[in-house]
Amino acid sequence: MAGENTYIHLDEKTIQKVDEQMPPEEELENLAEFFKVFGDVTRLKILIALRCSEMCVYDISTLLNMSQSAISHQLRVLKQLDLVKNRREGKTIFYSLADSHIVTILSQGLDHIEEG
Question: What does the pLDDT look like over 95-109, one tens digit per residue?
Fold first, then answer.
């Protein structure tokens, strides 16, 4: 049978080393949820726009040619995962990226795609 003659080598030191560095299951699940957010083109467009400038829902919806309710929905998702933050100025709420980590993730992702 195929595979019967396969050499199997168990490197216990490597397994132990990697196992000790493996994050807990809950952290891995949170990381998977975090990366799922980047799997939606609309959310990516919003994040890239906010990388350039703080914006309100109306401006984002105009830029992306989408309804304000659709943009608001996506901003709620992004806010729940701490990717964006907001501030109020009068009746207008302005959104921006939560921190420099998000800028780095977007920039490195784009660099990776552009290199390919």
Answer: 999 999 999 999 999
